[in-house]
């Protein structure tokens, strides 16, 4: 076995020992079930750990991750996670969290072929197309990149709000609010993009305000 593989096995043992030292019932309590208040839809980037960013413990955040934190209406993986979170776990918050310096967003700004991921990046390019006049008016490349990251998160929140799962939850009176954040890799802080939506009425009002 490689040294890295041995290390992560050893780290697991140390983590278990440390957790049990703090609370002998730690894992027994976790095994009883989960009631997380939050579903996190984030990027697969290894530098964006959902629980750590918000200081949450195991059991407090239900997580779905993919390249560039996309909400694609035909993605059965994402929809299955969303359905379970909303209709079974009854989460009260769904958060789409992107991050500055996102490789998927950067790739969507160019025309290079990377491989099979090109098919996924097509969805991100669609977001650029929606806002191409505004984005192309930004001369500074870094500023354009950061703005695209933010616009992509907003669009994913709006797409999330349009899913039948979220729509049905709102119509039944379920307490459910959607949010959009961007995480700063170089600072650790998140930026709330102020797209907090908790009803169909909110969706219309926020969309008009932000675009």
TrEMBL record:
SMART domains: Pro_CA. The keyword Zinc applies. Keywords: Lyase, Metal-binding, Zinc. Binds 1 zinc ion per subunit. It is an enzyme of class 4 (lyase). Its EC number is 4.2.1.1. GO terms for biological process: carbon utilization. The keyword Metal-binding applies. Signal peptide: none annotated. One of its GO terms (molecular function) is zinc ion binding. Its cofactor is Zn(2+). It catalyses: hydrogencarbonate + H(+) = CO2 + H2O. CDD domains: beta_CA_cladeA (cd00883). Zn(2+) binds at residues 43, 45, 99, 102. It comes from the Bacteria. Belongs to the beta-class carbonic anhydrase family. This is Carbonic anhydrase 2. It comes from Flavobacterium caseinilyticum.
């Amino acid at each position: 076995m490689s040294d890295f593989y041995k290390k992560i096995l050893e780290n697991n043992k140390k983590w278990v020992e440390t957790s049990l030292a703090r609370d002998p019932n730690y894992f027994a309590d976790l095994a009883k079930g989960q009631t997380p208040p939050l579903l996190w839809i984030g990027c697969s980037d290894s530098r964006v750990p959902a629980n750590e960013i918000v200081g949450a413990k195991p059991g407090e955040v239900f997580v779905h991750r993919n390249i560039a934190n996309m909400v694609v209406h035909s993605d059965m993986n994402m929809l299955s996670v969303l359905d379970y979170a909303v209709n079974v776990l009854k989460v009260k918050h769904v958060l789409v969290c992107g991050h500055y310096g996102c490789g998927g967003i950067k790739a969507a700004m160019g025309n290079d072929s990377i491989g099979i991921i090109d098919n996924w990046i097509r969805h991100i390019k669609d977001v650029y197309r929606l806002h191409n006049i505004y984005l192309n008016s930004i001369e500074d490349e870094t500023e354009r990149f950061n703005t695209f990251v933010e616009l992509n998160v907003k669009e994913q929140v709006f797409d999330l709000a349009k899913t039948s799962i979220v729509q049905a939850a709102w119509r039944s009176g379920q307490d459910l609010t959607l949010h959009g954040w961007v995480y700063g890799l170089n600072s650790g802080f998140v930026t709330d993009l102020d797209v907090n939506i908790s009803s169909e009425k909110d969706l219309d009002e926020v969309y008009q305000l932000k675009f």
